[in-house]
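Let us work through a complete example step by step.
Step 1: write down the sequence.
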Amino acid sequence: MAEEGVSSVAVVDSDDRLAGVLTATDYVRLTAEGTDPADTSVARYMHSDIVSVAADGPVETVAETMAALGVRHVPVTDDDGTVVGMLSARTDRR
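Step 2: predict the structure and record it as tokens.
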């Protein structure tokens, strides 16, 4: 994440369907607990109860979803449920 300058990543299953989200905060928690990231599965620390937004939906929906859920990252999916992107609270500042 640090190399790419992102603070979250979408985690997908073998069919490229959204399985969860791992954030930089999750990673900090894992290392603070003394867990070795090389020996730990992403599934152990990712958030799996995730709400996504449709790629063809209005941007307004993203802001409303983020505010209602108190989240800073929302995966974007296409009509097939495949992850096509990730929006964050800072996306609109770029």
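Step 3: interpret the result. The beta strands are 8-12, 18-23, 53-54, 73-77, 83-88.
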